[in-house]
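Osmotically inducible protein OsmC
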Amino acid sequence: MTNRVSTEWKGGMAFESNNPSGLTIRIDAGEENGGSDDGLRPKALMLSSLAGCSGLDVASLIEKMKLEVDRFHIETIANLTDEHPKYYDKVVVEYHFHGSNLNEAKLQRAVDLSIEKYCGVMEMFRRFAELELKTIFHTD
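Predicted structure tokens:
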């Protein structure tokens, strides 16, 4: 299967990029790099892609397992190298589950399945970054 994305320069440091879904996003640099600070940053988008890919897996498994979760969010914290080309060499991914009746074992299984089997973006990150994965349960 091949994905195709078209990214068009909109002047200055801004670009608009489409997605196979038909939706578009705006990409721009910060003012410190000649942009107008009016769009998403490319490297940060990679972290959003990582969280989104794994999050979709986990959300699907929460539904299939009929688990009770009041709130679920993912924090990604990445270290950028000092030398050009700068890239993420270490990434921490924290899965946060909130609720009063969390089945921690099944939720951990859902996270593990995403990490080990389903999330292709996670596999891509493994090729260039050291990953640290944490699951945090918040019982209300």
